[in-house]
Amino acid sequence: MRAGLEQIRHAERLRISRALHDQVGPSLCSAGLMVGLLRSSGAEYPSPARDLMEAIQDALESAIDAVRALSYGADPALAQRCGLRGALEFLARVHKTDLALQAGLPAWPDPQAETACRILRDALLVLPAGAAPPRIASGPGRLELSGAAALPAEPRAALAALAAASGLRLEWLGEGAAARLALCAEEAS
């Protein structure tokens, strides 16, 4: 049953990502181009109209950036779309997370890299806000997420099951107020 629910969740996220990318994004870009064309003949318009067109252009550009972030964020294949480094950079930017990848990235197969990104994204979604921003770091063959607050118990169990299903091990490093988790590949038996 879990596999069926995962397929449904995957299909829905893909549908949302594609709709944002293929429908909403182009409509906003088209509106921006039309406003740009109007602005290019700005001498014909009074100053308040030019100011209004500039404000509309700025609002459209901001909306395009937001739609792009939502499209990437909803994409169930974020690591495939951006590569593992790009996906982690995206997650750090969207979730206002520090990123420390100086130790390099794990050389995981695509399904494991995808699952790792999903686990980090889901953990960041439910991680309570703390005084300091969360931090994603890499180590030899592992990725770590640390935050100032603990993850709730139910998501922890779900994330651990998701990791195990894809051959990753999710370790909880320390208990108490801080959240710290590490993802590494299961050892071959």
What profile does the largest beta sheet have? 5 strands, mixed
What number is the mean pLDDT? 85
Our measurement of the CA-to-CA distance between the termini, rounded to an integer number of angstroms, reads: 27 Å
How many H/I helices?
5
Main attributes?
five-stranded mixed sheet, elongated, 5 helices, 189 residues, 5 strands, alpha+beta
Describe this structure as you would to a colleague:
- 60% of the residues lie in helices and 14% in strands.
- A 5-stranded mixed β-sheet has the order 1-2-3-5-4, covered by helices on one side.
- The protein is an alpha+beta fold and 189 residues long.
Topology of this protein?
Layout lengths: L1 H39 L6 H28 L3 H17 L3 E3 L9 H17 L8 E5 L2 E6 L5 H13 L2 E5 L6 E7 L4
Parallel strand pairs: 1-2
Antiparallel strand pairs: 2-3, 3-5, 4-5
Gist of the model:
With 189 residues, the chain is of the alpha+beta class.
